[in-house]
Amino acid sequence: MKQIYLLRHAQSDWESSNQKDFDRPLARKGIEEANKISCYCKSHSILVDKIFCSTAERTKQTFDICSDGLNYPIAEAVYTDELYFSGPGEIVKLIQSLSEFISSVLIIGHNPSMQMYIDAISENPHITYSTCGLAEILVESSWKDLSLKKCKLKSFIQPGEL
């Protein structure tokens, strides 16, 4: 069985109104959130074979903090603009491009795409994808045959629960 992890970026700083959305850094609270998720990943031995990360500043900073808990080298992540304005369909296409030798992937991105993905696969319509929320999704197909119907939400962790 294959696994997809979806991680929404940690809380960003809205104080600097002259910055473009793309360039907003993490807020102090966001740094705390990312550290909590990093510790969670480490304590639960979450390991991934591949990471795709949005090129927005806040997603890169979230990954920089979480990389230690994932034991994943920052230099090996694939940074892509596609995750900045993506929907679930674009995320599925990105994952479909993976080699079948890869058994787990982490996508670090943004709302509303993270929320839309979870809404499409979850039996619980009351999940709110908070900043730095981490979803673990089980996949019962090959990557190339991936569809939202073949995904099942195993767990959803939010920093406030840790």
Write out key terms for the chains shown.
alpha/beta, Rossmann fold, His_Pase_superF_clade-1
Task: Identify the quaternary structure here.
Answer: single chain
CATH architecture: 3-Layer(aba) Sandwich
Q: How do the helices and strands follow one another from N- to C-terminus?
A: EHEHEHEHEE
The SS-based structural class is alpha/beta
Question: How far apart are the first and last residues' alpha carbons, in Å?
Answer: 27 Å
How many domains, as an integer?
Answer: 1
Strand order of the largest sheet: 3-2-4-1-5-6
Note the main sheet. 6 strands, mixed
Number of strands: 6
| Spatial extent as radius of gyration | 15 Å
Shape: globular
What's the CATH class, please?
Answer: Alpha Beta
Please give the count of helices.
4
Can you walk me through this structure?
The chain has 162 residues and is an alpha/beta fold. The protein has a single domain (2-10, 21-161), classed as Phosphoglycerate mutase-like (Rossmann fold, 3-Layer(aba) Sandwich). The chain is built from 4 helices and 6 strands; from the N terminus they run βαβαβαβαββ. It has a 6-stranded mixed beta sheet with strand order 3-2-4-1-5-6, sandwiched between helices. Helix 2 links the parallel strand 2 (50-54) and strand 3. The longest helix has 16 residues, at 28-43. The radius of gyration is 15 Å and the shape is globular. The two termini are 27 Å apart. The model has no long low-confidence stretch (mean pLDDT 93). Substrate binds at residue 58. InterPro entries: His_Pase_superF_clade-1 (IPR013078), His_PPase_superfam (IPR029033).
